[in-house]
Amino acid sequence: MGISLQEQLSKYYFIIRSQRIVLEADTLVQMIMEKLQSYRSRISVNFEGIQYQLGDFQWRIGKVVATNADSLRGIVLEMEYLPISSVEKSRVIMEEFLDMWQEIVSKRSLPGRLMHIEPNFAGYGLADHYTPQHTVVQYATVMTHLLQSNVRN
């Protein structure tokens, strides 16, 4: 699976889930691999949204749509607590926030469901310090989940 990040436009990331590998390369690698017919994009999904910063929290909220269609696959809320780059140390703060958010959503009778998807960063050999590779694993996990849940529905 190939992923490019808006905040890392000069880089392209490949994630090989079967071997739990995240590879970072220059954006030209995608074009080179397509010309060599070593890689072909079968499904292209775009995360489109807005970024907000409120105090120490940075939020990205957006919709997930297939590039060649207008069908909505899901809505993603990504939250980052800026003072802490440790995944483990920030976990408690994030879980408390998610619990509060779940409570608010459950009182509103909104359609759909709110799901917390926890990627297995350690399974990819990623250290506790958050990096763009963590974001790639996170997006790949969300994308896989959304594609699987849309097949079932």
TrEMBL record:
Assigned keywords, A-Z: Activator, Nucleus, Transcription, Transcription regulation
A GO BP entry: regulation of transcription by RNA polymerase II
GO cellular component entries: mediator complex
Subcellular location: Nucleus
UniProt keyword annotation of Iron-sulfur present: no
Pfam families attached to this UniProt entry: Med20 (PF08612)
Molecular-function GO term, any one: transcription coactivator activity
Main location: nucleus
Assembly and interaction partners: Component of the Mediator complex.
Function of the protein: Component of the Mediator complex, a coactivator involved in the regulated transcription of nearly all RNA polymerase II-dependent genes. Mediator functions as a bridge to convey information from gene-specific regulatory proteins to the basal RNA polymerase II transcription machinery. Mediator is recruited to promoters by direct interactions with regulatory proteins and serves as a scaffold for the assembly of a functional preinitiation complex with RNA polymerase II and the general transcription factors.
Protein family (similarity comment): Belongs to the Mediator complex subunit 20 family.
Protein name: Mediator of RNA polymerase II transcription subunit 20
Species assigned in the record: Coptis chinensis
